[in-house]
Specification:
Keywords: Membrane, Transmembrane, Transmembrane helix. It is a multi-pass membrane protein. Residues 462-481 have a biased composition (Polar residues). It is built from 20 helices and no strands. The radius of gyration is 25 Å and the shape is globular. By secondary structure, the protein is mainly α. It has two domains: 17-199, MFS general substrate transporter like domains (Growth Hormone, Chain: A, Up-down Bundle), CATH 1.20.1250.20; 254-459, MFS general substrate transporter like domains (Growth Hormone, Chain: A, Up-down Bundle), CATH 1.20.1250.20.
Length: 490
């Protein structure tokens, strides 16, 4: 078995000490290079519009595709992690990200940017980011919540530094040379991947020849069907292939978890709906500010303010949510943070003055710190760690759909009306409704689970009482039906 595959498949004894903290440091840098990078695209929004004579909707497809692929490439990333391990996938992602941005510097149309910066860079960022998140789950157990919160500060660092660097390079050498330099910077993902050395598997793991879901002798049966098979056997062979295809999809997209785990189902639907509005301020805040007379350097500074405040708030949020008081209740903290994000957007509607926009960025950054620090921790709470990679794949591919269509649809609305306020109206609607849905649904699910546990305890007590009263008489064997367990959080 390859050493790289060990890190992707599982760990014998993840340790919260030693080299794990070097892996955490690499994860911080990695998230800054990947998740933090799309925030700077708003700095180039106006220049790209003028360069390619594109509308708001056409230009917004470029960051939308990048962010959507970054999140939606999860299933493919899961397959690669299972096969080659986290280290290889992170380094592959770094190569793709750098290649995409270098190619983008030579683009002659906005549609070419969709392919290079959007698809290639987005896919590379997806590989690096999601494999980095997965390996953290194996290196940390006791301090997992804190580790995820600290790793997410890398996003805050990215939010702080990328816009400032982008504006400086844009003023000095133009967007093409800036994209070329960005390609070299993103290659540092390969360095982060090299640090994430594999963890050895437990001694009782399955041998390489025995693959999950494969029956003994299935290969021989398949060979018999393919050699001199009758029409009926051909139909059987096609059915077998379809069944195996479905098993692969189920393995890497976690459809079984989505159907059986109500907590995962509610959380995935809520976050998917939330993403329709979550990315809108990141894409349109800088164009909105410059449209209302704010200087370009000050407009770029707004995104950096959001990131700078996040650097300090995210670790605090991680420590707070990791306290045992919030065990099983982190989803409510997450819903509250999403609700605050939605309400903060109304500040931009009131005024577009720079001082007001700074107040908006402060409040938004506090709310975003909760969302960023808790997103993957809540997912780890509602699913088992050995299925986390698969659950993450389905989770991210669903949210990538709304991330893809959200900004372009809002940009089309802005093109038609000429009013940037619709950006913040739309964002508030999706965020507030998603927060209420997740909070109310998990509250109802928790009450339903408690009611079932109470009924089961009452039934068990009744059974014990009947047994003590009639213990001297022969009794027919009977068992109460097992209680249904709904996994909401750990």
């Amino acid at each position: 078995m390859s050493q790289g595959g060990a890190a992707g498949r599982g760990a014998a004894k993840p340790q919260d000490q030693g080299w794990a903290w070097m892996v955490l440091l690499a994860a911080v840098v990695l998230q800054g290079l990947t998740l933090g990078f799309p925030c700077c695209i708003g700095v180039f929004f106006t220049d790209l519009q003028h360069e390619f004579q594109a509308s708001n909707s056409q230009t917004s497809w470029f960051p939308s595709i990048m962010v959507a692929v970054l999140h939606g490439g999860g299933p493919l990333c899961s397959i690669l992690v299972k096969r080659f391990g986290c280290r290889f996938v992170v380094m592959l992602g770094g190569l793709l990200s750098g290649l995409g941005m270098v190619s983008s510097s030579f683009c002659r149309s906005i549609s070419q940017l969709y392919l290079t910066a959007g698809l290639i860079t987005g896919l590379g960022s997806c590989f690096s980011f999601q494999a980095g998140v997965t390996v953290l789950g194996y290196y940390f157990v006791r301090w997992r919540t804190l580790a995820n919160a600290i790793a997410s500060t890398g996003v805050s660092l990215g939010f702080t530094l990328w816009p400032l660097l982008s504006q400086y390079l844009l003023d000095e050498m133009g967007w093409r040379n800036t994209f070329l330099i960005f390609g070299g910077i993103l290659l540092n993902c390969c360095v982060c991947g090299a640090i994430m050395r594999p963890i050895q598997l437990a001694s009782g793991s399955l041998p390489q020849s025995a693959k999950p879901g494969e029956e003994p002798g299935s290969r021989a049966e398949e060979a018999q069907l393919s050699n001199g098979a009758s029409p009926h056997q051909h139909v059987l062979q096609q059915h077998t292939r379809r069944t195996k295809c479905f098993q692969v999809l189920q393995k890497y997209l976690a459809f079984d978890i989505f159907c059986q785990n109500k907590g995962y189902q509610i959380y995935t639907i809520g976050v998917t709906w939330m993403m329709m509005g979550f990315a809108l301020p990141h894409v349109y805040l800088v164009p909105y500010a410059t449209h209302n007379g704010v200087e370009e350097r000050k407009a770029a500074l707004l995104i950096s303010i959001i990131g700078f405040i996040n650097i300090f708030i995210r670790p605090f949020t991680g420590l707070l949510s990791g306290h045992r008081v919030f065990t099983g209740r982190r989803i409510y903290l997450f819903s509250l943070a999403v609700l605050l994000c939605g309400l903060s957007n109304f500040i931009c509607v009131i005024s577009a003055e720079f001082s007001v926009l700074i107040l908006y960025c402060v409040i938004l950054s506090i709310a975003m710190s909760g969302v960023g620090a808790l997103t993957f921790q809540v997912l780890m709470d509602v699913v088992e760690m050995d299925r986390f990679s698969s659950a993450l794949g389905l989770f991210t591919i669903l949210e990538s759909i709304t991330l893809l269509i959200g900004p372009p649809l809002t940009g089309l609305l802005v093109d038609i009306t000429g009013d940037f306020h619709y950006v913040f109206y739309n964002s508030s609607f999706f965020l507030i409704s998603a927060a209420l849905f997740m909070g109310i649904s998990f509250c109802a699910l928790e009450k339903k689970t408690k009611l079932r546990e109470t009924s089961k305890a009452h039934l068990d007590n009744s059974t014990r009482y009947q047994y003590s009263e009639t213990s001297t008489e022969p009794k027919a064997e009977s068992q109460s039906p097992p209680a249904v367990e709904y996994i909401t959080s750990i």
